[in-house]
Write a structure and sequence with these properties.
heterodimer; A: about 160 residues; alpha+beta; 4-stranded mixed β-sheet; 7 helices; elongated; B: about 600 residues; alpha/beta; 5-stranded mixed β-sheet; 24 helices; 19 strands; about 40% helix
Chain lengths: ~160, ~600
């Protein structure tokens, strides 16, 4: 990835502090994480200490400083999903992919993460892979769903 | 066919997950190919949520007043041929009303809808949210015209004050008072903010309003801005709500085009515009001062509120911040008058409240009822009771700041003050119904885990106190509970609620306090008997199949992801505890109550 690329994103915004979060989000969306060099460039552009940007990047859950996998599995662990056994889904995914929430598989195909509510409580427990929503997911459906994304599933 | 038919397809997040976009496209394609005279052509429109997400995707046909539920793409051809061309009703797609024990033609005939009163959700599910003309045809922007040309600024604030509208975000602060305070401060610029950072897990009414009726929020904000003299507004929307952001953005563009936003609104000389700010996925940003810090481009940490944000808010200037649902109430109050609004509800809680009725209840979805409706009516009459007719255990209201209410309080009137008395709170209106398969200690653990992750870490009582409580409850759930744990929990809870800086910390112990108060038996069972009666805490749970109850249907075996269940058809099944992952799929699927917790 070249420097021009993230500079283009950064320079779309005026040099004002209030756009910091928006710029960070655009970077995140573009790269799936925020590269260190982009953070440095932004620090220079907004004339803000890099420590401030680092603190934002680690504070907001939507931002990540490490690269994510090709497919991002987001399991909703909102209350409605929790009482309908979302933690069982997380256990099942852990069993299949050998990753815990926040981790990425070694082959870089899946990242597993949880979210505190997708607002899709009526179809709980809910799970999203990339942009596709899955509602009323059961543990026994997990393997079938994962297969559609071509991951190697550990059949233990 | 003489009348123009309109087909509404719900395209809200819930229905989309069930494939409503495919149905929408299929209907559009079929209708276009019908080659009917344009004057009577059927129009297909996407709408927001009609509330009963459980039974989605939902397709409505007007003016016939027909509602179809759980529609599949393969049903589209029949809908076109029978209903749209001939006006015939397809019986099997109608909603089965469990109380009346028959299918009903329109959803409006069902108990779920009949008992509701839709004010904030008046347009959601009824109009195409992307079409400003649809909103205008439903009295949209009339309130703004009335406010701009027929009312003084003072009149507007007075009208909202007299209506008794209180903040729908949780604390229930009187909206009119907030506006009045902000108006009285002589410092400019002033700001108007919409809090769309709906972080309470289990609540999604704000998402639904922003997706299904964005103009009502925008109109409410413009009216307030005019009343207090603000020229800039912000709508802070949760990052997870991508559809809501798109819908609000489109609505803002249209509102500008029609002259409702921008310079010299409708020639009144008043100028105002709104900018969208995407949240960053931090629960604490739903707290007003943290939200403002986030808009300013900082880390979303709250500050002590000895100076209110109506005085010094965004960039130190006077700011009115209201929740999405509150904003959506404003235009209709201006249109219908404060007397109309204040006639609804209880003495101190006026109007209606939207609840997201979720969890172990049959009809999950969004419901709007007058304040003062009883929990029993909400859960049993509207919600249809507990899934599988299991035993009701409790209902959690108010998200992580609220509390769990047990069965003996089912006749409690739902309003700001009654809920507070029962050690819960209105919160944003998440209502999570729990049955005997829900472990109340685990519920407390869930909220503590949530809050420990979401605590911003600025003040010690919240950061460390929540963590300590979580450690204790983890021990209890994993079989290491000690006799003194309950006392320690109470003590820490008290300290956290007294000494924390912001609302998040102050209310963080509520789930612990309320479960300890109403469900202490379960805590004791975990600590002394090392047993989790709901079969949720894995370390304390062993499932087994009751020989007398098992009919050998094989359903549990089929649903077991760990292949831990053995047995031949029509013979007794048994669970291999060495293979069992204790997920509970078997107990949830068994129709004969044969799976038990040891």
């Amino acid at each position: 990835m070249d420097i021009l690329n993230f500079n283009e994103i950064i320079e779309k915004y005026p040099k004002e502090k209030r756009y910091t979060l928006a710029i960070l989000q655009d970077l995140q969306m573009n790269f799936n994480y925020i590269p260190k060099d982009a953070l440095k460039a932004l620090s220079h552009y907004l004339d803000t200490p890099i420590s401030k940007l680092y603190s934002m990047a680690t504070f907001y859950k939507a931002l990540s400083l490490s690269p994510k996998g090709k497919n991002i599995i987001t399991v909703c662990d909102g209350t409605a999903c929790h009482v309908r056994s979302s933690s069982v889904l997380i256990d099942e995914l852990h069993k299949c992919l050998d990753i815990k929430p926040g981790e990425t598989t070694k082959d870089g195909i899946f990242t597993l993460q949880t979210v505190n509510c997708l607002g899709s409580c009526a179809i709980a427990p809910a799970m999203v892979i990339n942009d596709k929503y899955y509602g009323k997911v059961t543990p026994s459906a997990i393997k079938e769903i994962l297969k559609q994304y071509g991951g190697e599933i550990d059949e233990r | 066919m003489s009348d123009k038919r309109v087909v509404y397809v719900c395209c809200d997040t819930g229905c989309l997950a069930n494939g409503s976009m495919e149905i929408f496209n299929e209907i559009v394609k079929n209708v276009e190919s019908l080659n009917i005279d344009l004057s009577v052509k059927t129009i297909v429109k996407p709408t927001g949520c009609n509330g009963l997400c459980e039974k989605g995707p939902v397709v409505k046909i007007e003016p016939d007043g027909i509602s179809y539920f759980k529609v599949k793409a393969s049903d589209v051809e029949e809908i076109i041929n029978k209903t749209i061309l001939k006006g015939e009703v397809i019986n099997r797609l109608l909603y089965y009303e469990p109380v009346l024990k028959r299918r009903v033609k329109s959803h409006k005939e069902s108990e779920f809808f009949k008992r509701q009163l839709k004010i904030a959700l008046r347009n959601v599910g009824e109009i195409d949210p992307e079409n400003i003309e649809d909103y205008k045809n439903n009295m949209g922007y009339l309130a703004l015209e009335k406010a701009l040309f027929h009312m003084s600024r003072k009149d507007i604030i007075e009208e909202i004050s007299k209506s008794g509208l209180r903040g729908r975000g949780g604390a229930g602060f009187p909206t009119g008072t907030k506006w009045k305070q902000c108006d009285s401060i002589d410092s400019f610029p002033k700001y108007v903010v919409c809090n769309g950072d709906e972080g309470d897990p289990g609540a999604f009414m704000d998402r639904s309003i922003m997706e299904g009726d964005p103009h009502s929020v925008i109109e409410g904000m413009i009216i307030c801005a005019y009343a207090i003299g603000a020229n800039q507004g912000f709508a802070y929307i949760r990052d997870e709500y991508s559809l809501a952001i798109i819908s609000m953005e489109k609505a803002l563009i249209d509102a500008r085009k029609y002259g409702y936003l921008g310079d010299d609104i409708l020639g009144s000389g008043f100028s105002f515009d709104i900018q969208i700010v995407r949240g960053g996925g931090a629960f604490v940003c739903g707290e007003s001062t943290a939200l403002m810090a986030s808009i300013e481009g900082s880390v979303g940490e709250p500050r002590a509120k000895y100076i209110h944000s109506v005085e010094k808010g965004l960039w130190g200037q006077p700011t009115v911040l209201n929740n999405v649902e509150t904003w959506a109430n404003v235009p209709i109050i201006i249109n219908n008058g404060c007397e109309w609004f204040s006639a609804i509800g209880t003495k101190k809680s006026k109007g209606t409240k939207v609840f997201s009725l979720v969890g172990k209840v049959k009809n999950t979805g969004l419901v709007e009822v007058p304040m003062g409706t009883s929990l029993r009516e909400l859960i049993y009459d509207i919600g249809g009771g507990i899934i599988g007719d299991r035993k009701f255990k409790g209902v959690q209201i108010g998200g992580p700041s609220g509390g769990c209410i047990p069965e003996e309080y089912l006749d409690l009137s739902v309003d700001y003050d009654s809920l507070k008395e029962a050690d819960s709170m209105m919160g944003s209106g998440g209502m999570i119904v729990m049955d005997d398969r829900t472990c109340m200690v685990d519920v407390a653990r869930y909220y503590l885990k949530f809050l420990s992750e979401e605590s911003c870490g600025k003040c010690v009582p919240c950061r460390e106190g929540i963590k300590r409580m979580l450690d204790i409850i983890n021990d209890i759930c994993e079989g290491r509970g000690k006799e003194e744990d309950i006392e320690t929990l109470k003590e820490v809870a008290e300290t956290v609620s007294e000494a924390s800086l912001c609302g998040l910390g102050k209310s963080a112990p509520n789930p612990v306090i309320s479960t300890l108060k109403y469900f202490q038996e379960e805590y004791k069972e975990h600590i002394f008997n090392k047993r989790c009666r709901a079969g949720v805490c894995k370390e304390l749970t062993t499932f087994y199949i009751d020989a007398d109850m098992c009919r050998g249907c094989g359903l549990c075996k089929m649903n077991c992801p760990s292949e831990a269940i053995f047995g031949d058809l029509k013979k007794m099944h048994f669970i291999d505890i060495n293979k069992c992952s204790k997920c509970g799929s078997c107990i949830n699927t068994c129709n004969f109550d044969a799976v038990k917790v040891r």
